[in-house]
Amino acid sequence: MQTVDQTRDWLLSRARVVADIEQVPLLDAAGRVLARELVSPLNVPPHDNSAMDGYAVRAADAANVLPVSQRIPAGTLPQALAAASAARIFTGAVIPPQADAVVMQEQAELQADGGVRFTAPVTAGQNIRRRGEDIAVGQVVLACGQRLRDADLGVAAAIGQPQLAVYRRLKVAVFFTGDELVEPGEAAPAGKIYNSNRYWLVPALRQLGCEVIDLGIIADRLDATRAALRDAAARADVVMTCGGVSVGEEDHVKAAVEAEGELQLWKIAIKPGKPLASGRIGDADFIGLPGNPVSGYVTFVVLVRDFLRARMGETVQGWPQPRLLPAAFDWLKPDQKREEFLRVRIVEQDGVQQLQRFANQGSGVLTSCAWADGLVRLQPGQSVQPGDLLPVYPL
Amino acid sequence: MQTVDQTRDWLLSRARVVADIEQVPLLDAAGRVLARELVSPLNVPPHDNSAMDGYAVRAADAANVLPVSQRIPAGTLPQALAAASAARIFTGAVIPPQADAVVMQEQAELQADGGVRFTAPVTAGQNIRRRGEDIAVGQVVLACGQRLRDADLGVAAAIGQPQLAVYRRLKVAVFFTGDELVEPGEAAPAGKIYNSNRYWLVPALRQLGCEVIDLGIIADRLDATRAALRDAAARADVVMTCGGVSVGEEDHVKAAVEAEGELQLWKIAIKPGKPLASGRIGDADFIGLPGNPVSGYVTFVVLVRDFLRARMGETVQGWPQPRLLPAAFDWLKPDQKREEFLRVRIVEQDGVQQLQRFANQGSGVLTSCAWADGLVRLQPGQSVQPGDLLPVYPL
What InterPro entries does the annotation carry (chains A, B) (predicted)? Predict the structure, then answer.
């Protein structure tokens, strides 16, 4: 058996970043991975501007009642401030040349003659946002390999970018084998079960930004499996299957991958889970998840998801940071050889956040994954008493 | 000024759940909000089945060498186990009547005569997954009001559901006002700035599952603003604008909403932020965010996002649980009247997770939101010393 960390490292070290880069309009770039660092061509804000609605003045004049010499809404270009005057100004508007402070309107009193008097001391520089304070010309505002979130797109807009260079979507072809499988909505005669793997895997891949080529259930024959693999490998960057990677299993994925390409079959010290296949078919990567839905789900989250992220160009730095939280449960019969990933939920009890585990951690219980919001990682042989601090990873 | 909590409570208490429910195919239901609880019509697994590849036996017979009387791949219906025999069985296959245990193949030795001998003691019930162990007939597997995640869809598939009843997408119309705004890609003459609000707000709404009606920049005239509001309200459940809700601002959103519907204009004890408008235009809700991008962003995350979630049918229970982490910074001049929401990042230093704050917390610095992965919530007047435990909310 190889360890979870060895397997992650092996996969990550072989994640070839998708080569194609495309320009997409800013509003279509959410969730995509930036393919070139973004350097600002301009200052944000472009000019010194007012942080308040109020009056732009020279601080040295501000003890006097001042006539209002101009009005500067946001979006207009001001005249230089006339000597011994104030300019009515609004939030975001450009500070007029010769002014050096803004007085907020709550500290200004309009006089009967139209002049303005200030009710608080005025300091040079007050309420002025400086040119380039947010972003300076030449500053790197977004890094290559970062997955673009909403505020990132706001920043790209602020420097005038109508589109961004992102890696093209990773194409992932999936199919499912097993003569026991039927699709939801079909009748399930005795002995058959519904194909649940398709319905968590396809959304999980889409959530990552993959373009999913969903080939559905493939008949459990060697020729059909080989044909599906060839078809999938010709159309996708990564081919994924669920099932058929355990010793002695009743289907043809192993033999078909070996016939069409190359295969590594691993036993990994992970529970739930254990078998995982990796390989190549033509230029496509092959990943064979275990067919048991809980094993497949945990294996995907722990081992495969970050491989796909790296494969699509995202910067992946080892494990995500776990949270450390106290257990509100015990776990007295740990697996002695495999790391265990318990399905847990973070709950607040008496004002303290704690971990509850799903009662039945059996590998046949997919409801444990739906119920959970995190996985606790236990070392081989690690038992748990209530109060133990445990590392939990979000799902 | 009213408090952040008062404002959240006010908005949440007025969030009318969208009335229309639609059936969507399972693979299109990711991220949608379930509109009816899902009750299982069947047991999962439907039959007692094998947790291993191996041999199904009667435990009482297992001390003997047993002939192999049948072979049971997954997906087939077994015969009753012949007396004093074993059945070759595979993971997931139905346990034959009369068998009461499965011996894993690693503990079985095939004999020259085709019989099988077991190398470890066998206990009745071992390696059998019980009918209904994951899901029992009549069990509620998914709750009304939950946002559907990948594993939820796997569970729905496991009970044979080809589609789910979800609330229809919330329609949110957005527009942006301010004569200083130009769109990215256009020239920005002196005095103009790029419309960044559109580019974080539209993706944030889509991320929530909203159908966004994006009306872009509307000319800063009362008639144009009124026309845009009428158009938006006729097509959407919620109308959102950025800007024009501060006292003394230079545009017409306030007057236009008052002319077309009703408006509450609030000063909220929040920094960044302060002004927020809420109201109704016809049957549509109106939300007016502050025009400053950082204020708008924080106001959206803290006050508006959960309103929209509740409005689209999702169960929202107060604030999300914050994490408590030590500050690796100081904050010595807190606002005395407003709660502050500092943009922070969780970093690991010497093996301990800590909070860094973005150096410039000014409300003109949108890069602080892109850099951050959380908001620290400070009470009015609360200063921070390194090491203080602070509540942080993910963005």
Answer: MoaB/Mog-like_dom_sf, MoaB/Mog_dom, MoeA-like, MoeA_C_domain_IV, MoeA_C_domain_IV_sf, MoeA_linker/N, MoeA_linker/N_sf
